[in-house]
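ok so i was messing around last nite and threw this chain in just to see what happens. nothing serious, just curious
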Amino acid sequence: MKKIICYGDSNTFGYNPTDGTRYGKNTRWTALLQNNLGKEYMVINEGACDRTGFVSNPKGFLYSAQQHFPEMISRADNVYLLILAIGTNDLQFQYNITTVDVEKGLDKLIKRAKDKINHIIIIPPIILSEKVLEGFFNFQFDVTSVLNSKDIGKTFEHIANKYGCFFFDINKYTYPSDTDGLHYDENAHKLIADKLSDFIKKMS
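result:
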């Protein structure tokens, strides 16, 4: 059985932008990915709402990938594939993150993962829509956050190429919901699962 770890933030966890709950197993892209790939694979959801990838999160250990990710990887055995989808929360204006911060932080995560995992898919953060400025999360994201979300993918692609990882830009296929401009809706979760499963099957 091929073990797949999906490590990310609320869009990996399965946050429902409509009511703030968690999408069920028939909706989350990680669960749908499991259905698509079948019994040959075991998909593990390691998502957490509000997790940052490259800066220290005031919420603590679980929400700061620079601290939590190395410990999680150290416990993981016989992992066939890591799907890393992190970085959206770093765009919150409170962190004032730079391209250098993103590159150094992502570099550290990939180096650590490479110690144990041969196959890695890097997914860049969701491109925020202007709706985020009007919705529930407008206290965290501003215009600069939206602009930076459009450029941050270049850094992710650079690191993927540097370490021989797969780069999978889901932004080519889908968009955040109109509800909050930040999280995926049900249709997007299905599309992500379908596109990723096709991609993974071609890797095998």
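not much to say yet. The chain has six helices and five strands.
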